[in-house]
Amino acid sequence: MDQIVFFVLAAITLASAVYFVVAKNPLYAILSLVVTFFSISGFYLMLNAQFLFIIQIIVYAGAIMVLFLYILMMLNLNKIDDVKKHNANKFIGVFATCILFLGLLGAYKGLSGNTVATSADTTVGLTKNLGKLLFNEYVLPFEFASILILAGIVGAVLVGKRDL
């Protein structure tokens, strides 16, 4: 049963993420991103990480998406602005995707093949354990992720900004 739920969530996640990338209408793209965030929260629930499940829904599917919708409505993109866009942005996107793919491939090759399946740990999803790990061991990646999200929002505003 868990495998069926996993594959259904994976199909929904992949389909909505691909639609987010290829959608012509920015509003539909943002709505597909909401579907992606909800399906990712389903993965957290399957992993017994109830805290991350709720945070994913409240923070990402709620607050971040409201912020993106506000930015989209503030920019008021028109069809006339589409003519001004250059192919350089597409090239940069393809180049960044290739670099990401090479990094993932390198990480995959670095994995050891002798992993042993263990029984599920029931203390994994507890908030106390998550807080200890997040603010002791993983404080630098946590702060780096927040800076990366801020840079993405600033970049989205700068790319969509009209020359006055």
Automatic annotation (TrEMBL):
Membrane-crossing segments per the record: 6-22, 27-47, 53-75, 87-108, 138-159
Subcellular location: Cell membrane
Name this protein carries in UniProt: NADH-quinone oxidoreductase subunit J
Reaction catalyzed: a quinone + NADH + 5 H(+)(in) = a quinol + NAD(+) + 4 H(+)(out)
Membrane association type: Multi-pass membrane protein
Pfam family name, one: Oxidored_q3
Function text: NDH-1 shuttles electrons from NADH, via FMN and iron-sulfur (Fe-S) centers, to quinones in the respiratory chain. Couples the redox reaction to proton translocation (for every two electrons transferred, four hydrogen ions are translocated across the cytoplasmic membrane), and thus conserves the redox energy in a proton gradient.
Cross-referenced InterPro entries: NADH_UbQ/plastoQ_OxRdtase_su6 (IPR001457), Nuo/plastoQ_OxRdtase_6_NuoJ (IPR042106)
Entry keywords, A to Z: Cell membrane, Membrane, NAD, Quinone, Transmembrane, Transmembrane helix
Source species: Cruoricaptor ignavus
EC number: 7.1.1.-
Taxonomic lineage of the native organism: Bacteria, Pseudomonadati, Bacteroidota, Flavobacteriia, Flavobacteriales
